[in-house]
Write a structure and sequence with these properties.
Blueprint (H helix, E strand, L loop, with lengths): L1 E6 L2 E5 L3 E3 L7 E4 L5 E5 L3 E6 L3 H4 L15 H13 L4 E6 L10 H5 L32 E5 L10 H7 L4 E7 L1 H14 L3 E10 L4 H15 L1 E3 L1 H8 L1
Parallel strand pairs: 3-5, 6-7, 6-9, 7-8, 9-10, 10-11
Antiparallel strand pairs: 1-2, 2-3, 4-5
């Protein structure tokens, strides 16, 4: 293993086929991942579940079957209880807009355009659109953070919450993979968090090449890509 980092208190140990980001912690888990298997500190880890909300995950009026954004529901429902049992905080990061939208400009409003115009309420805090989609169980001790941009870190308390929890490693799940999930992961990477994307717990309505580009970019320089089965196996 080769030490990677500029501070003795904050080093990765990098090997030919494995990377240890646990920084010498006593309670670790080793997870099969790309580009290399990763060992992490469970006591300094959390999972961020992004935008698994009714508006994004339910079928639209013209759809006769569940949309692709509903695919993460089952793997998340299997994995989250295992993470909770291991003491890993579950953080739901969801759109929770103000009803007056005073903190949101036209460029953000435009992304929610329906039939050529912005029709509130859309993802207002407490609205049916903003509710966590049916099929996902929310734990009594889970943490909820409202977001107002594609990145969960922008104009929110997410970073402060994570620092207070002493978290250094983040699992990522949710929708849309190439939009809000990727934007939040990119900001986390820029803030020096270790990032682990759980592939089957993410989805998007975008074309497949958007998924492939996102996965490529994550495993080539922003973190690690794993799946829910590997996480559950590592914690079993």
């Amino acid at each position: 293993m080769t030490a990677l980092g500029s501070s003795q208190a904050n080093l990765w140990q990098v090997g030919a086929d494995a990377i240890d980001v646990s920084r010498g912690a006593a309670r670790t888990a080793t997870i099969a991942a790309r580009p290399k298997r990763v060992t992490l500190d469970l006591a300094a880890s959390a999972i961020i579940v992004i935008d698994m909300q009714a508006l994004f995950c339910r079928a639209r009026p013209h759809e006769t079957s569940a949309p692709p954004t509903a695919k993460p529901i089952q793997p998340l429902e299997r994995m989250l209880p295992v993470l909770r049992k291991a003491g890993v905080p579950v953080i739901w990061v969801n759109w929770g807009n103000r009803t007056d939208k005073l903190n949101i400009g036209p460029s953000v409003m435009h992304s929610f355009a329906r039939e050529g115009g912005f029709r509130p309420p859309i993802l207002d805090k407490g609205s049916a659109d903003a509710a966590i989609v049916d099929g996902l169980t929310v734990g009594a001790d889970d943490i909820h953070v409202d977001k107002y941009r594609v990145s969960g870190f922008w104009d929110s308390e997410l970073d402060s919450v994570l620092r207070n929890l002493r978290v250094t490693t983040l699992f990522f799940a949710g929708v849309n993979l190439d939009q809000c999930v990727h934007a939040t992961l990119l900001d986390a990477h820029c803030l020096n968090y270790d990032c682990v994307l759980v592939e089957d717990c993410c989805a998007t309505r975008s074309p497949d090449y958007c998924t492939q580009a996102t996965l490529y970019n994550v495993e080539r320089g922003m973190g690690f890509v794993t799946d829910s089965a590997a996480v559950v196996a590592a914690l079993a």
